[in-house]
Amino acid sequence: MKANLPAGKAGKKYQTYMLIAALAFLYLFSTEVVDRWQQAYQLFAEARSKENSLLSPADLQEKEMLLSAEEKNLLAQLKNGSKKYEQSGIGVYRMLNTNAKSEQIAIESFLPAGEKTVGEMEEFRFALSFHAHFHQLGAFLSADENDALPVSFQKVDIVSESARQGLLKIDLAGDVYILSHGRAQ
């Protein structure tokens, strides 16, 4: 069956209008519909990934039990590992002084700078001053950061004093984390 299309100029005009309408349809389809379907697909994929990452209540309870057991284990390790030093400012001083003596460093000043409770731990802040050679300083810092009480140095000031044969004037500021007084027993 043949379509009855107008002949001549009217037929060409009709074909031109059809072509323009088809191009407009393709333009609208490609800019509006495809973009919206793409956005919808992205939202669906995002929702699916969030759904897959969610844990069931049983999984959450199991994970909570594992974390609780790990917390108890870590606290026990901290208590047992720190029997070498008291969980107090005196214990912090003893640890720092022991490590300094092992590197032939004499601590010239030790100033407690306050305590702050962070959960079940106390953050004990301190400042130290001493003279040492560069390699002694490195060994001292390493010994402190790897000892029983967790130390974090916040500031290290080094001043070269040429009159003292290669010795450096060192000022340190740091934090040590100890068990709060109620948890230390």
Description:
There is one protein chain. The radius of gyration is 36 Å and the shape is elongated. It has a 4-stranded antiparallel sheet with strand order 1-2-4-3. It has a domain at 85-179: Alpha-Beta Plaits (2-Layer Sandwich). The model has no long low-confidence stretch (mean pLDDT 82). It is an alpha+beta fold. The protein has helices at residues 9-53, 57-81, 89-102, 134-145, and strands at residues 107-118, 121-132, 151-160, 168-179.
From the N-terminal CA to the C-terminal CA, the straight-line distance is 99 Å
CATH topology-level name of the domain at 85-179: Alpha-Beta Plaits
Strand content: 15-25%
Fraction of residues in helix: 40-55%
CATH classification, class level of the domain at 85-179: Alpha Beta
Radius of gyration: 36 Å
Overall outline? elongated
CATH architecture of the domain at 85-179: 2-Layer Sandwich
Q: What is the CATH homology-level superfamily of the domain at 85-179? A: Ribosomal protein S6/Translation elongation factor EF1B
The major sheet is characterized as: 4 strands, antiparallel
Number of strands: 4
- Spatial order of strands in the largest sheet: 1-2-4-3
Index terms:
single chain, 185 residues, alpha+beta, Alpha-Beta Plaits, 4 helices, 52% helix
Set out the fold topology.
Blueprint: H1 9-53, H2 57-81, H3 89-102, E1 107-118, E2 121-132, H4 134-145, E3 151-160, E4 168-179
Antiparallel strand pairs: 1-2, 2-4, 3-4
